Amino acid sequence: MTPQDQGKKAVIRVQRFNPDVDRKPYLAEYEIAITADTTLLDALEHIKSELDGSLTFRRSCRHAICGSCAMNVNGANTLVCNRRVEAFLDRKGRVTIRPLPYLPIIKDLVVDRSSFWEQYLRVKPWLIPPPSYDDNLPADSEFRVLPEEVAALNAAETCIMCGACYSACQVVAMNKQYIGPHALLKAFLRVLDPRDSAPAERLEIVGGDDGVFRCHTIFNCIDACPKGLNPTQAIETLRKLAQKRQAFEAARVERQQSL
Ligand code: SF4
Ligand code: FES
Prior knowledge:
37% of the residues lie in helices and 13% in strands. It is of the alpha+beta class. The chain binds iron/sulfur cluster and FE2/S2 (inorganic) cluster.
């Protein structure tokens, strides 16, 4: 603690809800000492270990890698492990932490992410190589990917599946059948990957009733993403490709055969 941190305090307002005893969620306030380096997650950990052991939240890596600590802070979705308390305090020295919105609350800050993962699996998020790829190519052969293709895909690769975009999406709020920005970003990653052999199948899924044409282009997903990703742009690209998916797949097959 530096001399400047002496006596610094913050009021952490946390939404609490235990479905076994509470009729509805409520805000609890905890006053704690902080320093310039105290993160929102540090504050929650302190409350849990020193003030109320029943406080429930998810976290794991503490380094903005695992995606498990996404919450709603002062009305905006973010990770809590890499954001400092000081940056969020209002004039009364308070910050308000709630669970991710539009998802069922299991307890306190923990939400049920089942629909998030179900939608993710719908786009087949794994790479599907050409069927003959392993048999026909020598063991030391390479699948060449152009530098500009790598650059286009690199950003989408850094998604940590935190759910901040999904839970900020107004379309998701109204319709849990919508595939959602996280899964559409992953579909973009696979469709654009020249090693993948199923772009038409993927484009049929994302171009269907629950996919890219449901997006209202509200941009909430971009604002919410703690990794600075752009699901809206990926959705726009998928919209265009979905309209010419057969031709896109034919070009993919041709390219793969020329390698
Ligand atoms: S796109 Fe961003 S906000 Fe959405 S799940 Fe990935 S990292 Fe989280
Ligand atoms: S604890 Fe892993 S991203 Fe925050």
